Amino acid sequence: MIKNYLKIAFRNLLKNPVYSFINIFGLAVGIACCLLIMLFVQNEWSYDSFHSNSEQLYRAWVHEDYGDDEIYFNSVTPVILAQTLENNIPEVEMVTRRYVFTNLVKLPDQTEAISESVTMVDRAFLDMFDFKLLEGSAESVFNNPGSVLLTESMAGQFFGTENPLGEVISIRIGDIFENFTVTGIIQDPPPNSSIQYNFLIPFTNISK
């Protein structure tokens, strides 16, 4: 029975090739679009879900109301907010600040520098997020304001296959280059992370 159905269907396909092509092509395009949309939605919902405590992580936003229907939401918050949250909200277990800027980075003995993204974070950053520290100790990597964590890709770009621990990177802070000692290597953030970084330095450098 099924064999007869297949024969009839095949004959109809050959009898109306243009009509058959349009239907099959349309069906294929429709299925492909559905799969792409499903993969896109799945990827969007997977953002930051790899953190073991993702349900306890929150990002602070500022609600700015200037009246006359001028209401804005801003992710740039005051530096003092971290301490304020810890001191006034008992449910807050840990807070980290994050400030990203783009500036020139180079090796101390080089004259040419490249423009890279540099991120200032608090020590709690390593405890709150599941970004794996590959080299160095989480307890001591930020003991010195002149410490820097490199991602695997940045370590390879600047130092090749050599062990970069103890090496020096020059980062322009303000108008001058300052030397930072490599105290650890951290894994590259996955694509589905809302937090991206190349260099991590202590937040205490914000005052410079």
**Sequence of strands across the biggest β-sheet:** 3-4-9-6-8-7
The dominant shape is: elongated
Oligomer state equals single chain
Low-confidence stretches: none
Percentage of helical residues? 25-40%
Query: Please, what is the average pLDDT?
Result: 89
State the total count of DSSP E strands: 9
**Rounded radius of gyration (Å):** 26 Å
Euclidean distance between termini CA atoms: 82 Å
Share of residues in strands: 25-35%
Largest sheet: 6 strands, mixed, barrel
Structural class: alpha+beta
Q: From N to C, what is the helix and strand string? A: HHEEHEEHEEHEEE
Number of H/I helices: 5
Task: Please provide a written account of the structure.
- Helices cover 30% and strands 26% of the residues.
- The protein is of the alpha+beta class and 208 residues long.
- The strands form two sheets. Strands 3-4-9-6-8-7 form a six-stranded mixed β-barrel.
- α1 packs across α2.
Fold topology:
Elements: H1 2-15, H2 17-45, E1 62-65, E2 71-74, H3 81-88, E3 98-106, E4 114-121, H4 125-128, E5 133-135, E6 147-151, H5 152-159, E7 168-173, E8 176-186, E9 199-202
Parallel strand pairs: 4-9, 6-8
Antiparallel strand pairs: 1-2, 3-4, 3-7, 5-8, 6-9, 7-8
Helix pairs in contact: 1-2
In a nutshell, what does this entry contain?
Helices cover 30% and strands 26% of the residues. It is of the alpha+beta class and 208 residues long.
